[in-house]
Design a protein that fits this description.
By secondary structure, the protein is an alpha/beta fold. 29% of the residues lie in helices and 23% in strands. It has a domain of 73 residues. Bound molecules: iron/sulfur cluster (SF4).
């Protein structure tokens, strides 16, 4: 196999992404939380929510981050928006280093980096008319009332909802309608980057498809650049250009979506894909059942964090942390099965 590189270095060998500029360039991002209370005589422990993630998101690209609950996906999304101080790592947004900027210095960047949350009902004030909620978002982003009104009108057409919805309150709308408005609110200041954190997980399956189609349309119409977080492989398959598979705070495999689904390299990715139901009764498919306990992010094992559940684990896996290795252009996996020599 190829020489050892970090995922960030390997990005220079990405498959053709045209001349798309890099919007988000993250290198070695870490977010640790200190747990416990040293005053009570207990030793503090460190929860490693994000443990050295490197990735690049190009203009017009939807980068999917997929993994089990608690693997650090949401923390990663918030870290890329600099919603809190990073423990370590470098974060460039449109070439500007945001890694250590303070709250005030980050303010001009806020309108250009937006977020859509999982539950549309809890992301709006239940007492507020939706038109007022959007107008308020425009004001916070520094838009004039005139520009906000014009932009809301434009976006209502894009999300295909009638203007009269703006007169209603959140509980009067369905989850799908409200999530459309959540996207409109995020798009109001014409952001350069959106983090969508499980935006369809709280919706009925039939409505999920409508929102995914909306995201595909937005991408085409607006060259939307997005980090799309999900725990469902089937969801990311349909809308993402590139997928990063996350396990216990780290991205263990990155590849173009088609490549990841046809040639998954990391044993964890293989297990996730094996859990997708067959599309035809005659389809031959091996279900890989993960044995062993999911380690705690407070007490990460030495070596490969997946070793306790991996059917290919050897002694070296338990001792040495695998580095990311190039599998094919744009496809990298951190696993000893692919390490040189
Ligand atoms: Fe499995 Fe070893 Fe690869 Fe980890 S490094 S995924 S334990 S084979």
């Amino acid at each position: 196999m190829e020489s050892k590189k970090t995922l960030a270095q390997s990005e220079t060998e990405k498959p053709d992404k045209g001349n798309a500029s890099v919007i988000v360039d993250a290198a070695g991002i870490k977010k640790y939380y200190t747990m416990g209370n040293s005053f009570a005589g207990k030793r503090n422990k460190t929860l490693k929510a994000v443990n050295g993630v490197s990735l690049r998101v190009h203009e017009g690209e939807i980068f999917g981050v997929v993994g089990e609950s608690g693997c650090g996906k949401s923390t990663l999304g918030r870290a890329l928006l600099r919603l809190f101080p990073l423990t370590e790592g470098r974060l460039l947004f449109e070439g500007k280093d945001l890694s250590s900027l303070g709250r005030r210095e980050l303010k001009p960047y806020r309108p250009r980096m937006q977020m859509v949350f999982q539950n549309p009902y809890s992301s709006f004030d239940q007492r507020q008319r939706l038109g007022d909620a959007l107008a308020e978002a425009g004001k916070v982003c520094g838009l004039s009332r005139e520009n906000t009104d014009a932009r809301i009108k434009e976006l209502m057409e894009v999300i295909r909802l009638p203007d009269e919805m703006l007169e209603r309150r959140p509980q009067e709308l369905s989850g799908g309608q409200l999530q459309r408005l959540a996207f409109a609110r995020a798009l109001l200041p014409a952001p350069r980057f959106i983090v969508a954190d499980e935006p369809v997980s709280a919706l009925d399956v039939s409505v999920q498809a409508q929102i995914l189609n909306l995201i595909i349309d937005l991408k085409k119409q607006m060259k939307l650049t997005m980090l799309f977080i999900s725990h469902e492989m089937t969801v990311v398959e349909h809308i993402c250009d590139t997928i990063g598979v996350m396990y216990l705070g780290e991205i263990v495999e990155t590849a173009p979506a088609g490549e990841l689904f046809s040639h998954p390299a990391h044993p964890y990715t293989q297990a996730l894909l094996s859990s997708i139901p067959k599309t035809h009764p005659d389809e031959e498919k091996e279900r890989i059942v993960l044995s062993g306990e999911l380690p705690s992010a407070i007490d990460l094992p030495k070596g490969c964090a997946f070793a306790g559940r991996c059917r290919y684990a050897t002694a070296v896996c338990r001792e040495k942390k695998p580095e990311a290795v190039k599998i094919s252009p744009g496809h990298h996996a951190a696993c000893h099965l692919y390490q040189a020599g």
